[in-house]
């Protein structure tokens, strides 16, 4: 894979020219910033920024500070918490420090991985007695959240509300899968299909502790790759944790960059 070319495509299609995630979401470019205001509990924040200049460029630094202040003012006026999605190649190089100084809280960095759909496995392999089930209704969402809470050790009420909304109103925009051992849900994952682009994104992928190391997560990746192939997508993208990155790289994904979410909560 030409990782430089794919990163440029990723930046252009999923950041600078990002399509709205769903009906009611608003994406707009304001100066050097592209931001989204999600409907309801939809994702809200800054997708892309370009302040130009080389490292140490005072004009670029001043432009970044002004844009940060502008976005804080805008989202605070909406009384919305928002995220600035920072990537390792964004400039100025100290943009993360500038966000922190302005009151943003960084989360753990993740690695942006991309795999060519044509190069990835599409046949899920699971242990005996385990099956994959497509999520299509409220009951399926409740089982997904049960897995999520156990796998990640924390509830996510916003994700819960978002999935319920998507199942009810945007079933073609998301595809979620449960892995069941007998009747017990042991893994859950979902896919976002970015319509009009070459990319689908993998999210979730949480496995309860007792079932890790048995190939279940790999099976959900193969399952979701097959879905992306059937819809004609060229690439799968993942913001990978340190736990999932080695698995995905063995399957054929390539690291393009790192990304760190910086969150601002109005006081």
UniProtKB/TrEMBL annotation:
GO terms for molecular function: acyltransferase activity, transferring groups other than amino-acyl groups. InterPro entries: Acyl_CoA_acyltransferase, GNAT_dom. It comes from the Bacteria. Residues 130-267 form the N-acetyltransferase domain. Signal peptide: none annotated. This is GNAT family N-acetyltransferase.
């Amino acid at each position: 894979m030409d990782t430089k070319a794919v990163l440029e495509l990723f930046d252009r299609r999923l950041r600078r020219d990002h399509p709205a995630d769903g009906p009611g979401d608003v994406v707009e470019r304001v100066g050097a910033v592209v931001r989204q205001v999600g409907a309801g509990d939809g994702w809200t924040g800054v997708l892309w920024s370009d302040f130009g200049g080389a490292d140490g460029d005072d004009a670029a630094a001043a432009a970044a500070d002004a844009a940060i202040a502008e976005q804080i003012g805008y989202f605070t006026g909406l009384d919305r918490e928002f995220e600035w999605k920072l990537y390792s190649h964004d400039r100025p190089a100290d943009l993360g420090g500038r966000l922190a100084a302005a009151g943003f809280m960084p989360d753990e960095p993740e690695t942006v991985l991309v795999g060519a759909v044509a190069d990835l496995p599409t046949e899920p392999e699971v242990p005996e007695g385990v099956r994959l089930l497509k999520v299509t209704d409220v009951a399926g969402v409740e089982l997904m959240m049960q897995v999520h809470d156990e796998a990640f050790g924390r509830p996510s009420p916003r994700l819960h509300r978002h999935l319920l909304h998507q199942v009810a109103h945007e079933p073609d925009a998301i595809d979620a899968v449960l892995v069941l051992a007998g009747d017990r849900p042991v893994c859950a994952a979902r896919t976002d299909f970015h319509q009009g682009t070459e990319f689908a994104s993998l999210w979730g992928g949480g496995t309860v502790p007792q079932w890790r190391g048995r190939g279940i997560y790999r099976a959900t990746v193969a399952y979701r790759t097959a879905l992306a192939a059937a819809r004609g997508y060229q690439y799968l993208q993942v913001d990978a944790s340190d736990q999932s990155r080695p698995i995905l790289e063995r399957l054929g994904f390539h690291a393009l960059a790192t990304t760190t979410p910086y969150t601002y909560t109005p006081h």
